[in-house]
């Protein structure tokens, strides 16, 4: 059975003893009054973006530089670190390898914010500032051991109009695969899917106006008792055929790319790690359930590929039946939460 573990940020003295807390530093970078970026005055927005860029860059460099130190130890216990035994004896007290891995995936989430164009006057507003081949290098992650294979776009409930026109589709994250050198360090080919959180008015509104609906992601077994938040399901499954960047819904893009990657590396040891912050964490959890429910996490020998979800400040997204089904499917969920954050939840 798999468990959903919640680690409160008040445990930072235990979790992040050797490094400044990435997550606490992130909370200090929150926007004034937590309002969407496009509502800030120009001067406020520019100051916040400059501060964000400097702070985020200082967080990325140490993680990239020190990641090789624990390579051999991590290779021996990577399945336990990924949660196959429900992180037994790894959380209390916090295992240093698990601590390092949480930090590593947190940085991959930070990359989403660093690479996303949050300047409303830009032609690429709400899209990535860089091409996928150069993105990790541009944000200071060159040498991180992963290669981006696909950008992911979603369609919110309503579009945003800019001076350059209207495009409902917006960049929400990326898929990446560990390089051959990183495979030697990790002892497996790690497939990561990373999502950023809410940055616009419509996303905040969708988070507040929501209700539980049946997920029904498996057409052969709809399971009407398994329910999730309608706002996240809409973001995950809505399709925008107009936007030039997206091809199909967020779900269709992800399932297609993950199926392709698993097929390409089907003869190797694989892992799937999905991470996100806030709304992005909810999409990460939904994707993990979807993959497992459809049985897409199978390698060339029909062995189950472990799925691990690492969530930062993410709300729960479903009812108790959703949680129970995730546990039955072996989806390993690790939630890192900020005890001071207020979020409306309908689920467990």
Describe this structure in words.
By secondary structure, the protein is an alpha/beta fold. It has one domain: Alpha/Beta hydrolase fold, catalytic domain (Rossmann fold, 3-Layer(aba) Sandwich), CATH 3.40.50. 39% of the residues lie in helices and 17% in strands. It contains 12 helices and 11 strands. The chain has a 7-stranded mixed β-sheet with strand order 1-11-10-9-6-5-2, sandwiched between helices. α11 links the parallel β9 and β10 (307-312). The longest helix is centred in the N-terminal third of the chain and has 25 residues, at 42-66. The protein is globular. The model is unreliable at 9-34, 159-164 and 341-348 (pLDDT under 50).
Helices and strands, with pairings:
Elements: E1 4-8, H1 12-15, H2 22-28, H3 42-66, H4 71-81, H5 96-115, H6 135-138, E2 146-154, E3 161-162, E4 165-166, E5 170-178, H7 180-186, E6 189-195, H8 201-208, E7 212-214, E8 227-229, H9 230-237, H10 250-264, E9 270-277, H11 279-294, E10 307-312, H12 320-329, E11 332-337
Parallel strand pairs: 1-11, 6-9, 9-10, 10-11
Antiparallel strand pairs: 2-5, 3-4, 5-6, 7-8
């Amino acid at each position: 059975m798999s468990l959903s573990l919640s680690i409160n940020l008040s445990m930072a003295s235990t979790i992040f003893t050797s490094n400044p807390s990435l997550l606490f530093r992130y909370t200090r970078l929150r926007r004034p009054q937590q309002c969407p970026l496009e509502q800030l005055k120009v001067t406020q927005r520019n100051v916040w973006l400059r501060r964000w860029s400097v702070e985020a860059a200082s967080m990325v460099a140490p993680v990239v530089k020190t990641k090789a130190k624990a390579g051999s130890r991590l290779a021996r216990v990577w399945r336990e670190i990924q949660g196959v035994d429900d992180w037994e004896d790894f959380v209390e007290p916090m295992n240093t390898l698990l601590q390092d891995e949480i930090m590593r995936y947190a940085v991959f989430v930070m990359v989403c914010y660093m690479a996303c164009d949050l300047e409303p006057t830009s032609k690429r507003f709400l899209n990535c500032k860089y091409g996928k081949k150069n993105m990790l290098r541009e944000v200071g992650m060159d040498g991180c051991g992963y290669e981006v294979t696909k950008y992911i776009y979603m369609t919110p409930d309503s579009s945003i109009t800019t001076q350059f026109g209207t495009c409902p589709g917006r960049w929400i994250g990326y898929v990446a695969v560990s390089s051959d050198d990183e495979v030697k360090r990790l002892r497996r080919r790690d497939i990561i899917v990373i999502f950023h959180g809410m940055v616009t008015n419509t996303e905040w509104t969708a988070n507040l106006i929501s209700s539980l609906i049946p997920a029904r992601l498996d057409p052969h077994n709809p399971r009407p008792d398994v329910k999730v938040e309608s706002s996240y399901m809409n973001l995950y499954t809505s399709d925008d055929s107009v936007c030039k960047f997206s091809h199909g819904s967020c779900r269709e893009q992800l399932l297609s790319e993950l199926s392709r990657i698993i097929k390409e590396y089907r003869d190797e040891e694989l892992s799937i790690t999905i991470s996100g912050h806030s709304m992005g964490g909810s999409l990460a959890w939904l994707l993990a359930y979807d993959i497992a429910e459809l049985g897409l996490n199978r390698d060339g020998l029909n062995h189950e590929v472990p799925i691990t979800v690492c969530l930062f400040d993410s709300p729960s997204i479903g009812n108790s039946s959703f949680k129970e089904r995730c546990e039955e499917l072996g989806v390993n969920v690790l939630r890192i939460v900020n005890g001071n954050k207020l979020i409306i939840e309908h689920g467990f």
